[in-house]
């Protein structure tokens, strides 16, 4: 039986600002300042924190896997200063036309994480800023919440952790 509960987070628009032409490198990464406190609270409540993010900019050759992984390292370093951490990052590098099983609204990234970390999906959450995030979570039985405006993660997390 899967034992662990997780809060799955979309990346862009949730942890950092959306950019018009993708977040392609560290220079374009604007992390929301309250993310440290937010993730720390999730860590302390014993939920896994797993980022699941569509990064078709890789498939479009606008950025590279290396750049995307550097962005994830950078987010992790930022969190470390707040004694917080993300347990794993999963990203889809594909184009919409690739018809992969991992680009949200498909649930492949969450399925992979659930397998790797023995996650109880029914008692886990998916938080994102697009309908595709909500669909990806709902499709596999996660409770899913859409962020109404950028930078609002802390309020949502507080509500979840209180419930
Ligand atoms: Mg997003
Ligand atoms: Zn994919």
TrEMBL record:
It comes from the Archaea. Keywords: Carbohydrate metabolism, Cytoplasm, Hydrolase, Metal-binding. It is found in: Cytoplasm. Gene3D superfamilies: HAD superfamily/HAD-like. GO terms for molecular function: metal ion binding; phosphatase activity. It is an enzyme of class 3 (hydrolase). Signal peptide: none annotated. Its main location: cytoplasm. GO terms for cellular component: cytoplasm. One of its GO terms (biological process) is carbohydrate metabolic process. Its EC number is 3.1.3.-. Belongs to the gmhB family. This is D,D-heptose 1,7-bisphosphate phosphatase. It comes from Nitrosopumilus ureiphilus.
């Amino acid at each position: 039986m899967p034992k662990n509960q997780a809060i799955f987070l979309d990346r862009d628009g949730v942890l950092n600002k959306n950019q018009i032409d993708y977040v392609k490198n560290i220079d374009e990464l604007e992390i929301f300042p309250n993310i440290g406190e937010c993730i720390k609270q999730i860590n302390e409540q014993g939920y896994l924190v797993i980022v699941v993010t569509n990064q078709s900019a890789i498939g479009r050759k606008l950025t590279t896997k290396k750049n995307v992984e550097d962005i994830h390292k950078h987010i992790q370093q930022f969190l470390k200063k707040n004694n917080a951490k993300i347990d794993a990052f999963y990203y889809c590098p594909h184009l919409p036309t690739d018809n992969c099983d991992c680009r949200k609204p498909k649930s492949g990234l969450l399925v992979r994480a659930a397998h790797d970390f023995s996650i109880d999906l029914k008692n886990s959450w998916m938080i994102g800023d697009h309908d595709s995030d909500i669909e990806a979570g709902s499709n596999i039985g996660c409770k899913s919440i859409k962020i109404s405006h950028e930078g609002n993660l802390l309020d949502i997390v507080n509500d979840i952790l209180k419930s």
